[in-house]
Each structure stands twice: as C-alpha cells, then as structure tokens.
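Chain A, query sequence.
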Amino acid sequence: MLLAAACNKTSPAATNNPNQAVLSGTAEIQITASGFNPTDITVKAGTVVKFINMDTVPHWPASNPHPTHTDLPGFDALKGLANDESYSFTFTQVGKWGFHDHLNPIDNRGSITVVK
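Chain A, predicted structure.
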C-alpha cells in the first residue's frame, strides 16, 4: 500500500493544474501574432524548450524581468527571432520561470514550471 502511494505522488507544481501534462525531452512553444502558444507549461528538469517564431515580425523570448532577463541567467535569445527561426533553452533549475517577448514585454508573457 505504501509503495502504491509513493508511486502516485506528484509535485506541488503539477497538482496546481491536474489537466496540464508534465513534459520531458523536448517541448515546443510557438510565437504568433497573438503571443506565446502555449503561454504556460510544466516540464521535468532537463527538458529542452524550443521557441519557434511563427509570425512575420521578430520576437525575442527571454527570462523575466524585462529588460534585464536575470531571473534565470542564460534564458535569453539575445536577439529577435525572424519568421521560422527558433531558440532553445534547457531548463535544469526547478522553479517557476516567467518569460516575455523582449520586443513586446507588456502583452506577450508566459511561464515555465520546472519539476524534478
């Protein structure tokens, strides 16, 4: 009985939204004229998140806060991505990491929750 309970244990981040899958390996976030899609995801530590610009104008994914991008050092594309260009970052640090489009920081935001 104890073994079954231990196997069903989930992290607090994953239980906040039971309908949201915990991704691992590689996850994809598309950037469109409407913003990030999806805006919020949960991934296991070590997951690569790939941001792909599907819009005709540049977008620049980066860690909060704007404009310093210091909440999660290294999570910064360092430039605007052209149409069909991508940027990937491996999330290894457990926590909830907000991000934004550096070129449109007020309207385009999201978060990535990283669990063990």
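The CA atoms of residues 39 and 110 lie 4 Å apart. The domain at 23-115 is CATH 2.60.40.420 (Immunoglobulin-like).
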